[in-house]
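Two entries, shown back to back:
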Amino acid sequence: MNRKRVVVVRTGTANIGSVMFGLERAGANPAIAFNPQEIVDAEYVMVPGVGSFGSALEQIKGTVWESNIKLRVERDKPTMFICVGLQIMGHESEESPGAVGLDVFPGKVTRFDQSLVVPQQAWNFVVSRPGARFVDSGHAYFSNSYKLDGFPEGWTGAEARYGSTFVASVERGSVLATQFHPELSGKFGLDILRRWLGVLPPLSDEGKVTQFPEDSRKIPRIVPCLDIKGGQVVKGIKFQNVVSAGDPSESRHPLRSV
C-alpha cells in the first residue's frame, strides 16, 4: 500500500504518540514537522492539541508556523485539527481570556454548563450534518470541558450533545477538525482518518443517521492501564509482589507509573 505522508505539528500540548499510532493504523506514514516550511510543502498536515486553549497557541501564535497553517487552510490543502486544535481555529475562548486564536473562522469557545461534570471524558454520539464528507454518525471519544457552540458560515460537520448541542467536528473542502479524538475512537475514528487520507471514499448524505438516539451516552467504557516500574510493565496484587511483564513500548495502551 502506498502510504500517505502526514506531517504532524508539535504544538507542545499534543498527545503525539497516540496520534502517530492512529495515523499509522489508518494507512499513513506520519512524521513530526521540524521546519515550518514543511507545513507549506506537505501533502497532508495534522494539528493535534490537548490541554488549554492558551497553552496550545503558545508555540505557534505569531510565528511562521501560524501563518503557514492558515495558508494551508486558505488554499484548501488537506489539513486536520484535533481536540483543542479545533478550538484554536476560532477567535477566543472562555478558558484563556486574552488569548487570540488562529482566526480561521470567527467564534468563541465556551465552557460546558456549570451543572455538568467536566471534562466530558467519555464516548458520545455524533450526528453528521448534510454535506459532511469525512465524519459519519456514530460514537466518538471526547475529553473536553469547552466547546464551539455553532458552525461557522460556510462550514459543515457533525454535532454532539452534552447538556446542550455543540460542535463535534467542522469541515470545509479538504480541511477537517474534530473536537473528539479519532485516534482513540476505534473503527469509527479510523474510518474518519482514512476518508481524510483518501484511503476510503468520502461520505454521501444518502443513508446517514440524522437524529440523536435515546440514551446515546449510556455505553460501556473500557479503560486499559499498565503499571510501570523501572521502565518495565509489572504485574502484582495491590502493588505487592510485583513481577516484570515486559517492555511497555510493545503496548499502545495508556500508562500509569507506580
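entry 2 starts here
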Amino acid sequence: MRKFRTKIKAGIILPESLFSTIWTTLITVVIIYLSIEIPLELIFHYEIPDWLKFSNIIITLIFMVDIFLNFRTAYYHDGRLIMDKLKIRKYYLKGNFFIDFIATIPFEPILMLMGLGAWGSASSSLRFLRLLRLLRLFRISSVLKAKSPLIEKPIFVTIFQYTTFSFLASHGIACGWLSVNGLNLEEDNFTNYVHSMYWTVTTLTTVGYGDVTPADNIGKLYTMLVMILGVGMYGFIIGNISSLLVKVDADREEQREKMAELVAFMTRNEVPKDLRDEVICFYIHFLTVRSGKLKETVMRELPDPLRDQLELYVSLKMINMVPFFRPLGTKCKEALSKVLEPLVVGPDKYVIKEGDIGKEMYFVGHGLLQVFVENVGDIAEIDRGSFFGEMALMEETPRTASVKSLTYCNLYKLDKDNFLKIMDEFEELSEKINEVRLSRS
C-alpha cells in the first residue's frame, strides 16, 4: 500500500514533506535576518562582534547544505511531480543555482586570508561584497512556491508574506536614504535609523509631510524613485489583501445564506423549537468541521483506488491510536480499519453507560466528551485523537464508566462481532489480545 507520510523517498526530497517545510522555514528566516543585518552594517560601519562572525560561518554552512539539498528536491512541472534525479539537477542548474552559489561564497574570510583586510574592517568597496548575499532575496518567492501551485496557502501565511515584504522593502529604502542623505553625526545610530524609516513610510505611502527633505539632486532623484515605487508596491499589496478578505467574506456569506435557507425552511414547516435548535447546532458543527463538503466534492472526483487509499489512511490513523493495535501487521490493521463505522453524536448524549455490557469501542475524530462514574463524579475529558471502550472487545464485562458527549462529536465505532471475525483471521491479533488479558489479570 502506498504510504502517505512525509519522508525522503529514494534519496529525493518531496516538496510537501515535513523536512522540506522545516528547511524552507529555516532558509527564509536566515534570508530575512541577512536582509536586515547587512544593510545596517554597511551604513553604520559598526564593529562586527564575535557572535556575529560565528553566525556568518553558520549561515554559510546552511547555504552550502541548501545547494546540496536543492539538487535532490523534487519539483512540480505542469502540475506533475518530477522525481527524476537527472531532471532535478538540470532544473536547478538552469534555475537558481547561480544565484545560490554567488550568495554562498564566504567573501569575508576569503578576503581576510588574502590579506585584503581584517574581518569587519575591510574597505567600503570590499564590505559591499556582502550585499551579494542578498541575491537570495530573489529566491524567497520561488521557495514559497515550492509546493504545487494548486495548493492554496492559508490566509494568515499570505498576509505574513506581504507584511514581511513591506518591512524588508521599507528597511532597504531607509538604509538607502541614509546612504544618499548621509548620517547626522549629532545623533546616535538608532535615532538616525528611526528618522530614515519615518521618511520612508511617509514617502512610500505618498503622504510626504515635508519635514524631512533631500539635500541635493541625488536625494531628490532617490525620493522621486521611492514615490513611484510606493504607488506600485502599496497598490499591489492592498489589492491582494483586499481580494483575500473578500474571499473570506464570500465564504462566510455563503454559510450565512445556507443557514438562513435552513431556518426559513423550518419556519415555513412549523418545526418545533427543540428540534429546530438541535438542527441549527448540528449544521453549525457541520460548517465548522466541513467534512461533508470534502466528501461530496473532492472525494467523489478522485479515482476509486486513490479514494479508497485515502479513506484507508484516515481509518489506519484511528487504529494506530490504540497501543495494543500499533505493533500489528499492516494487513491486520487494514482489516480493522475497513470495518470502522463513522457516526455523529449530538451534545449531551450518552455514548456508553456505566453497567451496560459493551459490544464496541470508539475513536474520537472530532469533539469533546466527558467520562464519569456514578458514585465518584467526573473523571476526565477526552477529545480528538482519543479512544475508549476497548475492554468491550476483549471481555464480556459491564462498562466501568459512562461517556457523554459535551459537543457534537465525530466518532468511529469498531463493532465486537467484526473484531472477532478479524481475530479469527489473523493469529497475531488473537495473540496480542491474549497478551493484554494476561497483563491485566
